[in-house]
Amino acid sequence: MRWENLALESEHSRADAALFGADAVTTRTFDTPEFRGITFHEIRARSIINRVPGASRMPFEWTVNPYRGCSHACVYCFARKTHSYLDLDTGLGFDSQIVVKVNAPELLRRQLGSRRWLGEHIAMGTNVDCYQRAEGRYRLMPGIIGALRDHANPFSILTKGTLILRDLELLKQAAAVTDVGISVSVGFTDAELWRTVEPGTPAPERRLEVVRTLGEHGIGCGVLMAPVIPFLSDSPAQLRATVRAIAAAGATSVTPLVLHLRPGAREWFMAWLERHHSYLVRRYERLYADGAYAPKWYQRRITRQVHELAEEYGIGPTRAGMPRRIREPEAAEQLTEPQMTEPVQLSLI
Ligand code: SF4
Region labeled Disordered — which residues (predicted)? Predict the structure, then answer.
């Protein structure tokens, strides 16, 4: 690891160089089944509120990320690339070499109290999951949420981690004094696909339980339906099954996002595709021939389909946490095997 010699070849590495110092790294492993094979690099960060680069497509300006790397190990994770800025491997290394900013809560409290801080919205879970398994041990989020609550600072959290329910009381306290937005990421409900492509995450139905529980406690929760994986989770029946489950959980919104494959994630994902669905490799090369994103026509089609389904199932803010009567799926909707996209669309790829 080149904590002390971070080359200044990118904005990210400049930020990393400012955050970490070689003398601040303590490396630990824990011999419990939960953490077997995972190495934790504890650091004392120099700054915890990060500004998102101006050119970013993200709809937020400030983020807090107490961890780097993520044991949820989603094959497609776009944050894999950021591990290379630390001279860490973007494949297995990203899943198992976790950087922990152990002073994140105290540092955040200090920065929130600074006269220069204007109380803007802070987004969390935007790089890696702040409720990944490490959080069960390091318990950084209670201190972080507590600091945000005490400063009535608006914030949002995006997660796949059911551990967020541990902090339910704190979230309720924060929501009483400021704007709190919670989103859970559930791209599909196919159990077979989940086991191979998101191997370290809680199952989709457990994540939807989080949505339900938050709603029951008055905290509306949206679902980021991400990623929709071309040819593996995008059939009409699969989209319907997923939106239907999201609606049944009482989500306040559903936002679809098609898989994107930036460098770092792309190589790892394509190797996975070759192992598990080799018949799709050529089609992916064609679909993503122009870069990291699927063609606009494809993205638009998925968005339209999901929005129509959301409308059909009545997903919306006024229904947060309310049980929904969802009609039983018809036989054609109960498909769990990956379905091929309609032939008419294949010809367009
Ligand atoms: S949970 Fe999020 S941050 Fe973690 S590996 Fe999956 S996509 Fe990446």
Answer: 330-349
Q: What angle do CA 265, 73, 321 make, to 5 degrees?
A: 110
Task: Determine, yes or no, domain membership for 152.
Answer: yes
**53 shares a domain with 146:** yes
Evaluate the omega torsion of the peptide bond into residue 227 and state whether it is cis, within 30 degrees of 0: yes
Nearest to 171 by CA among 153, 145, 138: 145
Structural domain span for residue 36:
17-156
Residues contacting ligand 1 via CB (< 6 Å): 70, 72-74, 77, 79, 128-129, 132, 160, 201
Contact between residue 227 and residue 187 where contact means Cβ atoms under 8 Å apart: yes
**What is the number of domains present in the chain?**
2
Residues with Cβ within 8 Å of 97's Cβ and at least 6 positions away in sequence, in order, are 38, 39, 41, 69, 83, 88, 89
What is the value of pTM for the model shown? 0.86
| CA pair distance 278, 262, nearest whole angstrom | 20
Please identify, by atom number, the ligand 1 atom nearest to the C-alpha of residue 95: 5
Evaluate whether residue 38 is within a structural domain: yes
Q: Do residue 202 and residue 327 come from a single domain? A: yes
* 70 CA → ligand 1 middle, Å: 6
- The residue whose CB lies within 8 Å of the most ligand 1 atoms, and thus the one to mutate among 94, 95, 128, is 128
Mind listing the pLDDT tens digit for each residue in 12-70? 444 454 455 545 689 999 989 889 999 999 999 999 999 987 756 677 899 999 999 99
Q: How far apart are CA 202 and CA 209, in angstroms?
A: 11
- Let me know if residue 178 belongs to a domain: no
Q: Ligand 1 center to residue 114 CA distance, Å?
A: 31
| Same domain membership, residue 219 and residue 259 | yes
- Helical residues (DSSP H) of the chain, grouped into ranges: 11-19, 80-84, 92-96, 104-112, 134-138, 141-150, 168-177, 191-197, 204-216, 236-248, 265-276, 281-287, 296-313, 343-346
